[in-house]
Amino acid sequence: QNFGAMASYLYVVKYELPIVIKAFLESNDNAWYTNGDYLVLLVTVSIILPLSLLKNLGYLGYTSGFSLLCMVFFVIVVIYKKFQIPCPLPENFINITVNVSQPQVNTTEEESCKPKYFVFNSQTVYAVPILTFAFVCHPAILPMYEELKDRSRKNMQNVANVSFLGMFVMYLLAALFGYLTFNEAVEPELLHTYSKVYSVDLVLLIVRFAVLTAVTLTVPVVLFPIRTSVNHLLGASKDFSWPRHICITVALLVCVNILVI
Description:
This protein is mainly alpha-helical. It has helices at residues 2-25, 36-52, 61-82, 109-112, 127-134, 141-147, 153-182, 190-195, 202-235, 242-260. It has one domain (2-260). α1 crosses α2 (36-52).
């Protein structure tokens, strides 16, 4: 489960980071620094690996806090763009997502700008695993509990409640205002939908970079429970060993990079 989460995060880096680099450099060439495979390896070696080698999860608190701020910035921009992008959308916006299982119908401009708050069709079922995955965090519960200064069930419950509430509000605001911005033209990848309206937008480029930063800094946090489990399987009764710690970390990152590349 966590291994799949790591792979999905690195997939985001693989496909989004080249777009950001090309936009900042205003170049469409196929240089090595715009190759997603090379960039995944570079990010893994230079950022993810050093953070993943930290002994305790508590050391990642600062990076986790920064990644949270990046996502807050993302939500703020999504809300701001809702009131900046006109409805109906510009005429050059032609990439409209439609349900292939249903016949396409012509809608007026008024209807296209009217949101549908309840939609049930054959595609609805695909949203269930996505919603479930968004709140999957139980593998990190025990490491988080070990980092608490005052370890108690009440304090752990408070941490869980605040975390879930905060994430729920952020997910809800991003999804709601993202949908209200584009309505039926919204795509599965929200940031990609914005690129259909703006050819070049500095704020959206910064948002893309912020999301990439948040995703990258999340990988070491997700890796920590996996390494702990493997470490217990290989040497539960042994003292902490840096060579074993490093080997497990490198092996996990090599495996997930092979899968992504």
